[in-house]
What we know:
The chain is of the alpha/beta class. It has helices at residues 2-20, 23-26, 28-42, 61-76, 90-103, 119-127, 154-169, 184-200, 220-233, 245-258, 273-280, 292-307, 325-329; strands spanning 49-55, 79-85, 107-110, 132-135, 148-152, 172-179, 207-215, 239-242, 265-267, 286-289, 315-318, 321-324. The protein folds into 3 domains: 2-42; 49-152 and 292-318, Response regulator (Rossmann fold, 3-Layer(aba) Sandwich), CATH 3.40.50.2300; 154-290 and 324-334, Rossmann fold (3-Layer(aba) Sandwich). It is elongated, with a radius of gyration of 26 Å.
Amino acid sequence: xxxxxxxxxxxxxxxxxxxxxxxxxxxxxxxxxxxxxxxxxxxxxxxxxxxxxxxxxxxxxxxxxxxxxxxxxxxxxxxxxxxxxxxxxxxxxxxxxxxxxxxxxxxxxxxxxxxxxxxxxxxxxxxxxxxxxxxxxxxxxxxxxxxxxxxxxxxxxxxxxxxxxxxxxxxxxxxxxxxxxxxxxxxxxxxxxxxxxxxxxxxxxxxxxxxxxxxxxxxxxxxxxxxxxxxxxxxxxxxxxxxxxxxxxxxxxxxxxxxxxxxxxxxxxxxxxxxxxxxxxxxxxxxxxxxxxxxxxxxxxxxxxxxxxxxxxxxxxxxxxxxxxxxxxxxxxxx
Length: 335
């Protein structure tokens, strides 16, 4: 009763203010005071729901950036982000999806640890009526329902990486690939890389051969070992396409240890701060850089549009930009 009386008193004050003021004092001020009264009487504004996220790993800054920008964008629309990580373990990621379903979250966003093996978990979410979105890495099982996939144009990025290799080798040489074939985004990168080289090799001035493909797991330590193995098998290697910056940095460490840092050129992928710094220092030749901030923002916007009943494209691709030493030297983030 006491709180009700207080609200009524405040409302009376609003009416009095409206009667005493002119036009400027009687429009927006009235609305803002009423909204303030409503907020105080109802407590904190209720969130619209929870968007649950499971990324590939939180050890890679790329995925941290996606999560951070999802959190910022979701907050603008009244949603909360519940972020977890599979840490390359699809079984762990499946358990996380089960937990999301139990919590009855509003939507699920996945960066799958395995583009095929994640399918049963997505089907469970489908059965529970929870919309699923994927970011950066897609699910390759066509039997599941994913509302929208938001990612880098990885195929185009792979082609850009091949263009950088052709450029730095002047069209001739032997190339290795540090791969991670379990995830769809990397499959697209290497597919684009191969396609660009195949087309270029039709020209008389280009003769580039891919002589080795070894899995580096997308992380430094495994890529370091894979690079060592590649050098043992191919002492005359000229260049390496590493499918992300951690792979490229692991490869660079192996090259330095073998005394071949000046012999083998590296092209990475991502544009993480460490990768950009390595480009500036001449340790990596170039990167097709991604924009994880935009992936995070566009994923949340797709979810919001879906909830508002709008048609959401099944795939939203964000183009890459080829980043070389000149770009790094003029990059304000590296100054």
